[in-house]
Amino acid sequence: MDAQNKNILDSKFICARCSFILSEPVQLKRCGHRICQSCLDTLNQNTVKCPQCQIETPQNQIMSDRDFKNNMQCLPIICSLCNWNGILIDYQEHLVQSHPNTKCNYCDEECNSINHLNQHKAFHCSNIAIECQLKNFGCHQEIPRFELKAHYQSKQHQDSMLEVIKQLKLQLSEAQAASTSMDSDVSRTTTTTDDDNFVANQLEQLQETINMLANGTAILNEETQQLGTEFLEHQNKRQGLVENTSNVKLAVEEEQLLNEAITQNLEILNQNLLSLREKIDDKQCTSYDGSFTWKIKDFREKMADAQSEKQASIYSPPFYSSPTGYKMRARLYLNGDGNARRTHMSLFFVLMRGQHDQILKFPFNYKVTFCMYDQTPQRRHIIDSFRPDIRSSSFHRPRSDMNIASGIPKFYPLVKILEEGNPYVQDDTIFIKVMVDFGDLPKTILPYALSLNPGLPTDVQQHFIRQALEKKAEIQTSKEHSTTDT
Q1: Half-sphere exposure (CA, 13 Å, Cβ side) for 336?
Q2: Topology of 285-451 in CATH?
Q3: pLDDT the model gives residue 175
Q4: Bridge partners, 383 (sequence order)
Q5: Which DSSP helix (H) or strand (E) runs through 233?
Q6: DSSP string covering 69-115, please?
Q7: What gap in Å lies between CA 304 and CA 327, rounded to an integer?
Q8: Is 62 left (phi over 0), alpha (psi -120 to 50) or beta?
């Protein structure tokens, strides 16, 4: 996948075929390099030649690299389509939520999905800049794909081609040197002469030349033997140094492995501690009636974290529709998300994987209402609702821990919530209520239901709501009778 900062990431996180950030990485075991699963699928070959080193690897030696994928999840990412900052694990969710109708930012071609956009950029977009194939021979220029033919005729590329040819000639010369060094003019026997003396003189000169070569060879042999002896001495010393170095290296590696194991154990213990603390907190405030009142403390600190992108969003504890019902939570972007970023608070509903999902009805289609409490006696609460789009995967049965959040991106303007002394932030705390409406309450009753004292038991609140509905029905019936009499 593409990102604004892909060129400054470590090259090991970049696909050797498409030059984008690795997506579902697979490793070529013969050379150790990695490519995207989607790039591997486009090759459709029994053996795959590595785009980086040209080493061929059989299909049965190409493995999905899940550990490497997990290590990538915390990579810092700047969205290629906007200025969103975050980490890779949240990037796909951001793209789906904020850029559902994808358009190539290089050529404006419309794509029907993020995967389609990535494939378009990797292999088809004519405006995207790509590296020259001779970058290892001095041609480091990045060229738009449609200018490749013109680049191949440029002086810079031609100079790189000459460098390639020079290296090939040097390799050929070295390969032929051994086979040509012993060639002589012995084959020149086509010329004949009757002059025996001339032949004898030639033979004498040839013999002298052979003797000179023999003497020179003997001297060279003596020097070679002496150099060989010195070489063996140095080789033995070098072997000793290599053995000592290997022992030191092995000791260092063992120490590093021990430190890594200790670090991993500490991380696991910290994660378990955090998980246990979260479970304890969740148990203490779990709701089983389809509603949840979320108390958010340290509002200013959390807002500052959101504005600095340190923590863009926060989650409420889970709550349930019943002891055997849907598992849910809220997600709040204090500084906004997507098109509402830096203008509104964004409030979303998240459907979670529960223990009883097999027997529940999906897709989830019950109206969800959010209420941010006015903490002054005026009780001018901020209330907004939405009904789920059952076509969205956000409301289908969860296949992972949580579905993609969905809700109200422009819940409340930042300029108002940041006003000093506003009624919704008191003692650096805000209260947000999430209520799933399983009874399809009329919209006119919602303000009354949400204005009831949250301290009353749930059955008492429901009794008051039923009374309000009955009273409203009586008034409506009276009006109908009056109209009929008239």
Answers
A1: 16
A2: 2.60.210
A3: 55
A4: 371
A5: helix 196-284
A6: HHHHTT-EEE-SSS--EEEHHHHHHHHHHH-SSEE-TTT--EESSHH
A7: 30
A8: beta
pLDDT at 23 over 90: no
Give the pair of three-digit tokens for residue 112: 């029907």
Is residue 160 classed exposed, middle or buried when 0-12, 13-18 and 19+ CB atoms within 10 A define those classes?
Answer: buried
Average pLDDT over residues 155-160: 74
| CB-based burial label for 5 (10 Å; 0-12, 13-18, 19+) | middle
Phi and psi torsions of 214, nearest 5°:
-65, -45
Determine contact, residues 311/454, Cβ cutoff 8 Å. Answer: no
Q: How far apart are CA 336 and CA 343, in angstroms?
A: 7
pTM of the model: 0.42
For range 431-454, the mean pLDDT: 75
Average pLDDT, the chain: 81
- Which pLDDT does position 174 carry in this prediction? 65
In whole angstroms, how far apart are CA 397 and each of 100, 306, 349, 350? 21, 30, 14, 12
Contact criterion met (CB below 8 Å) for 466 and 459: no
Q: Report the C-alpha gap between 379 and 374 in whole angstroms.
A: 5
Which CATH topology does 6-125 take? Herpes Virus-1 (3.30.40)
| In the chain, where the domains are located | 6-125, 285-451, 457-486
Cα dihedral angle (7, 11, 17, 22), rounded to 10 degrees?
-90
Q: Encoding tokens for residue 220?
A: 């060279």
Q: How many whole angstroms separate alpha carbon 36 and alpha carbon 34?
A: 7
- Measure Cα distances from 463 to 44, 165, 469 in Å: 66, 90, 10
Would you list the DSSP string of 272-335? HHHHHHHHHHHHHT---SSEEEEEE--HHHHHHHHHTTSS--EEPPPEESSTTS-EEEEEEETT
Question: Each residue of 239-296: pLDDT tens digit?
Answer: 888 888 888 888 898 888 888 889 888 889 888 887 787 667 656 668 898 899 999 9
- Name the CA radius of gyration of the chain, rounded: 38
